[in-house]
């Protein structure tokens, strides 16, 4: 679990001037990690500071960062080294970037010149369903008297999704073909007519446990390397048709977009908050005093849309969802512990999706399937949306906020829906 230390000091300032800019996602109190490349130089690890990227490979070569894992072309070695390694790196980078340290602009790359990559090769991807409000709203369509799955209040429900379909923010998504049943009972095949987003938190795993070795609630927090944003693109018509026997399959494997920046668990220590009460109380293997007092995170999350017409008119993105991650019924630690209950070997670089981060308020509905329960979305320019249309871009953002702490952001997770390809002859 994360501990507050000198790197969180609200008085800290950096010699990188833009780290003090109003509203920046990346003050010196954040220091998220990513993998980037530039013209003429391949992928390597970096740290966001203001509107710049600190090149960790260059910092290591200069003797300013000690861990050789920071010089790799992926965050996988650092994830494998465990939370102690990421905490030590954070301390070194904070000392390097603070205002009273010698300025080293030669170690910086402007973000505008950085080409972002996946943080690591995703080894496994599991997606959870941890929002009470999301489950209750959509479940009421199936059975108004019993909207929640029987197990929901007892464990964090999840399924194994497609690791090879995970893509970094900015990559386009092609409208998929699929099969579903229409309202008149006919079975149809063709391009989906119900493309949706799901606003989720990405949870990246640190370290390994051997096959057959469970992860306890006491150990679970230290298995969380950090957090990012995740768009679990959802093909609703296909998903509804295929789910009753075995759960999501082609309705979910089309693409998953993740933000490039990982906000480390260490950076989020000031934003830990009490987990929501559970009724009935969780079984002992999913409970701990720390989880009850500090297992949730106070992170405001938004999803916005830009349509082709809005883009042509220069209109600002329209906020579809404004929600709070801290209200999720199940915490990230319970997801980790439950995932490994049967001895499943969670590996460094594994990815967990939190599930749709929907809250109780109507504005906190975190997908169009929920928003559309009360009718299509009316956009300021007169357009309406029931589902995502070709050319629409979906943009996720998030910001951790707490009294007495400098707010920190997660960057963006973007994706544009392209038209379906012509079905091969």
TrEMBL record:
NCBIfam families: fum_ac_acetase. It comes from the Bacteria. Its cofactor is Mg(2+); Ca(2+). Pathway: Amino-acid degradation; L-phenylalanine degradation; acetoacetate and fumarate from L-phenylalanine: step 6/6. Its EC number is 3.7.1.2. It comes from Roseomonas fluvialis. Residues 29-119 form the Fumarylacetoacetase N-terminal domain. This is fumarylacetoacetase. Residues 126-416 form the Fumarylacetoacetase-like C-terminal domain. Keywords: Calcium, Hydrolase, Magnesium, Metal-binding, Phenylalanine catabolism, Tyrosine catabolism. InterPro entries: Fumarylacetoacetase, Fumarylacetoacetase-like_C, Fumarylacetoacetase_C_sf, Fumarylacetoacetase_N, Fumarylacetoacetase_N_sf. The gene is fahA. Pfam families: FAA_hydrolase, FAA_hydrolase_N.
